[in-house]
Amino acid sequence: MTPIVSSIEVARPSAPTFDYVIDPAHFHEWQTGLIAGRMDRDQVGVGARCITTRRIGGRAREITSRITEFDRPRRWADHGVDGPIRGIVEVDVEPLDDDTRSRVTISLDFEGHGIGNLLILLTVRRQARKEMPANMRRLKQQLDTT
To answer: What is the pTM of this model?
Structure first.
């Protein structure tokens, strides 16, 4: 299937934009259904684990992903490692106008395991497509005002 891709442009240089977008401690500020997030260690890089708590079906559920790409301040990618539905996220930050502004592009896809395959087809992709534009608007608002 085709990933869900969305972009925004913000009035902030690429390095602080990147740092904010990839910091799980800030995810709840702009992502629907996310309650909390953290890294499993202080050093962020390939192999580190990102642990988020999301509200799924009315309950809080901890989800773990592993960082698969890390090239500050340009690119971050992670891949879910547990549960029936595993997110695959890619974040690209492109400097604009001599790095006075930035373009953030987020690509989201899913990998199903067991019942997750059916859930992705029936609800998950549709809900993610609906939530992504609102998430990106909130991200832009956060980046443009902080």
So the answer is: 0.94
